[in-house]
Amino acid sequence: MDIVILLVVIAVVALGAISGLVISGRRKKEVPPPEQGAPTITAPPAEPRVGDDAEDTAEAPHRTIDDVGLPAADTTSVVVEPEPAAPLLETPEPAAGRLVRLRSRLSRSQNTLGKGLLTLLSRDRLDEETWEEVEDTLLGADVGVAPTQELVDRLRERVKVLGTRTPDELRGLLREELLTLLGPEFDRTVRTETSGAQDRPGVVLVVGVNGTGKTTTTGKLARVLVADGQSVVLGAADTFRAAAADQLQTWGERVGARTVRGPEGGDPASVAFDAVKEGTAEGADVVLIDTAGRLHTKTGLMDELGKVKRVVEKQGPVDEVLLVLDATTGQNGLVQARVFAEVVDITGIVLTKLDGTAKGGIVVAVQRELGVPVKLVGLGEGADDLAPFEAEAFVDALLGE
Fold this sequence. Notes:
Mean pLDDT: 79
Distance between the termini: 129 Å
Strand content: 5-15%
Largest sheet: 8 strands, mixed
Low-confidence stretches: 21-83
Helix content: 40-55%
Strand order of the largest sheet: 3-2-4-1-5-6-7-8
Shape: globular
CATH architecture of one domain: 3-Layer(aba) Sandwich
CATH topology of one domain: Rossmann fold
CATH class of one domain: Alpha Beta
C-alpha cells in the first residue's frame, strides 16, 4: 500500500514539471515588449467601404506606421435628395354641357316633382282638390308660395283654354311654365371680365356659411375657368379654419393655379388684397377669393366680410360675388341669402348638393328671394361635378326627359 501511494506522488510531481516546461517555451516565442519610452502604435480597424459587398469587407486593409495620424479618406456616401416632382396637371372636363352629362344625378325627389305634376294634370277631371294637390307638390319642392301661386294660376288658365289635353301637350305646357318660372331673362355667365381697367384680372369673391362646401366650390370653380382656357390665381382669405388654405392650395396645384395665402388667423382682407395684387403682377385672367365661412348670426364676422370687399375694391371693382348655398337646407338657405345680400351685393348663386335630398324648387325660390340667378350647381363630389346652370337641361331633368 505504501508503495502505491509513493508511485502516485512521483507521477504528480512529474506532470507538474512537464507543464512548466511547455509554458516556458511558449513565452520564449512571444514578441518581447517594446523598450521603455518607445511609442505604442495601434492601427484602428479599417472601415468598410460604403456600397461594397460583404466579401470585400471581410478583412481590414493593412496600414503601416506611416499611415498613422493621417486623415482617412472620406468614404461616406453623399445622399442627394431628388428634386420634388412637379405635380401632374389635370385637364378638367369641358364646362359646357356638364349639366346635361350629369342630369342623372339629380335627386329622386326632383324627378318626383316633375312626374308628380304630370300625373296630377293628366287626370280626367281637374277639380279644386286636384289643383290644391298641384300647389302642395310645388310647395313641398321648396318652390315658394308666390312662385307656386303664379305657376298654378297660369296652368289653370292654359289648361282651360286648351280643353282636350294629350300627354305630350301637358308635358310641353308644364315645361314652358317651369322655364318661365326659372327666369329665362337671367344672364347666368360667371363674370370674369374686368369691369374697368384692362391691366388687372377679373375678381370673383366667394362667400357663404360654414358647411356649404364653399372652399371646395372655389377649387372646383377654378377648374371650370381653367377648362374655359383662363388662368387663375386663388386667394385663401379663409384664415380662421386651419385646413382651408391647404385645401384650396391642393385644388389649385391640380390645375396649375397659384394660391396666395397668409398666416393662420391673419387678416383676411390683407390676403385678399395681396391675391389681387399678385394676380395683376402675373397677368392672370381671374382671381378667386375664398372667404371665411361666416355665420349669418354673427354681426362682427359679417362686418368683416364687408371689409374684405372694400379692401379689394381699392384696386378695382369686384366683378362677381357668388353666394354658396347648400341646396338641402331649403328655406333656411333663403334666410342666409337675405343676410348676405345686406352685407355684399350678391351677383350670383351656387347651389351645392343638388344631387342629394335637395328639392329642385329651391332654384326658383332663391332666385326670387335675391333677384339674381343661380349660375352654378353642384351635382356630386367629383372634381368636375360643378356645372354651369342651364335652365332647359334642368327642367328636362325634372320632367324625366
